[in-house]
Structure formats: structure tokens, C-alpha cells
Amino acid sequence: MEARCVAIPGAFNALCAKAIARAGFTACYISGAATSVTAGVPDVGLLTLEHFARCIREAADASGLPVLADADTGFGEAEMVRRTVIEYARAGAAGLHLEDQEFPKRCGHLDGKKLVTTDHMIEKIQWAVKAAREASPGFIVGARTDARGVEGFEAAINRASAYVLAGADMIFPEGLATEDEFAEFATSMRRLARVGVDQPPYLLANMTEFGKTPMIPLARFSQMGYSCVIYPVSLLRVAMGAVTRALGQLRSDGGVDRFLDQMQTRKDLYDLVGYTPGTPWEYPS
Predict the structure, then answer these.
(1) Is 107 an annotated catalytic residue?
(2) 95-139: per-residue pLDDT in tens?
(3) Is the distance from CB of 169 to CB of 201 less than 8 angstroms?
(4) Domain 6-239, what fold?
């Protein structure tokens, strides 16, 4: 991120994380939404810390990539935020982000969200930062604010500024509505150097589909000063679109012949996981 704006696709399982690495990406993302729906539940904070840590560990082990992980609201209050940071770091995450919603949280692109107070979020960030510095040097603590859709754009800037002053390494402004808002938000974060911040925070942009944010190219985010762009549910949506179509064809045709050419072959699957039948397979060290 120091050198360029990094594209971070979302991995909805370890095999997907392996494919992301094979495709040449330099990081992958574990999304709360994708992790939840692949477990068959909505993205409202129902899964446990242990469930998320297992998904992180599997993706990190399979891909060998730095993993940025969604930590929702931290699975509780300050003490649980500390535990979350430690467990995520042990699982192999390179960083996480916490959000300032009340529990039960909602997808950032839905209406009806409620926020915790700024002071409450600051406390969580401070606990997270302290834990990160102890658990894993270089571990990134990100703070997501959902204020744009609840309190307005200026409130999002004010909250983000307070989170940076509390020690957050990265800021994630969720649900911004225009490219101009992304540009203005980035400019505001750079101005924090005038109020005693050693360096501006890393900035994360969320390119989720079918939400409140327009589709903006990675190159444009780079020009605006963003450090990384996540694509949290893109691959899951592509995969489930294909699954749904294939199921419809299987039900109507009674066979898979019409979509056989759309499948990953056995050879390609074995190649992706590094397996040669008859040869012992070594678990990644």
C-alpha cells in the first residue's frame, strides 16, 4: 500500500483464496457478508469469533497471501475487541477493520443502521491498537464508519478523524454515494497531518455491487489517494450466479451436458491445490 493502491478480492473459502493468489493478486479479503451467507445465515453478526478465525486461517494457509479481515463490531465490547485482534493475528490475518454500528449490525449498504457513540468506538479502537502492537508488529487496525448513511457525510469525516486520532491505522468510509465524496473524504484525511497525526491513515474503499456506491475503477481510487480497494462479495456473486443457472439446467435437462464446458476440470482443480494423485501432498509450512 505504500507503493500503490492494492486490489483485494474477497475469498469466500480457502480454495477461492488459492485462486486469488494464482491469479496474481497480492492480498485477499475475508468478508463478514460472504462468510455469513456461505454459512447460510444473513450478515447480521450471528457467527462467532471462532468461525471467522477458522476462515481466516484456512485462507491464509491456502493462499500464502496477506489477509485483511472483516471483524464486524468486534464480537462484543472492548475486552472482546482485544481478544478478536489477538485471535485474528494468530490465525494469520495481516489486519482487520471494526465498524461503528450497534449490534446487531447490518450490511453497510442497507438503510436503518444505528451507530454507537464516537466515544464508544474510540474505546474499541484504543483497545484494538494496544492488542495489535502486542500481538503482531505491523498488524493493521482499520476503523470503518457507517456514518454517511446515518448522520451524513460531514459526520463521517468527523468520526473518521476522531478514529485516526485514537490510533486507527486505516479508515474505511462505508456507503459513500459519489466519486466526489470519495475524493473529498481522502482530502480531509490528508489534512489530519496538520493536527498532530504523524502520517495520514491508509484509506480503504469498498467496491461492492448493487449498493449505494457507483462502480469506480482501481486507477481512479489510486489517483484519489486510496491505499486499497476491496471486492468483498464479487467472486461469491459470480459463483452463486453460475450455481443457480447450473441447477436450473440440471433440473430441466436431467443431466450436466449443457454446462460441462463451464466447469473447472479435475486436472485444473488438482493443479490449483497442488495435488498429483499417487504422490504424497505436503501441507503448507
Answers:
(1) yes
(2) 999 999 988 776 766 677 899 999 999 999 999 999 999 999 899
(3) yes
(4) TIM Barrel (3.20.20)
